C-alpha cells in the first residue's frame, strides 16, 4: 500500500497507525477531528497535509519516516508526545503553542537548531541523542523537565560530556534531573 483514499468518513477514528507500511502520501485529515494518535513510523511519507483540524491529537509519531518538513503544529494544543527522531526534517516549526507537550524525541534527527522551548512548561522528557543539534536554547523555564538525553549529540562548546553536565546543571538551576550523555 502506497496511498490511502479519502478518510473523510472516519470522523470517529481515534487511532491511525500506519507504521511500517509503504505509504508515501496521506489524503486530507481534516475530518478526523476525534483522532488522538497518529503513527507514521517507518513510512515513506515525505510531507504531511495540514494538521490544523486535529485538535484532539495527543501523540504524533514520525520516527524513521522520510518526512522532510512539518506543517504548522500551532493548533495541536492537546499534543503531549512528539516523536521526530531519525527523520529528514532539518527545521522545526514553532512549538510555542504545544503547552501540553510532555515528551519531545529528536534523537538521530537532522535538525541542527531548536526553536525556543520556553513555553513548554509541561515538558518532562527531551531526547536529543545522536542528533545534529549544535546548540540548546535556554531550558530554565522548563519547570517539569526530568530527563534530558544528549548521548552522541553535536552540541558545540559543551563537550566533552562533563562540560555538558555542567552546562545543563547551570541551565536548569541544579534541579534534580536525569542527564544521559
From TrEMBL:
The keyword Repeat applies. The lineage of its organism: Bacteria, Pseudomonadati, Pseudomonadota, Betaproteobacteria, Burkholderiales. This is Leucine-rich repeat domain-containing protein. It comes from the Bacteria. InterPro entries: Leu-rich_rpt, Leu-rich_rpt_4, Leu-rich_rpt_typical-subtyp, LRR_dom_sf, SDS22/Internalin_LRR. It comes from Undibacterium hunanense. Keywords: Leucine-rich repeat, Repeat. The keyword Zinc-finger does not apply. SUPFAM superfamilies: L domain-like.
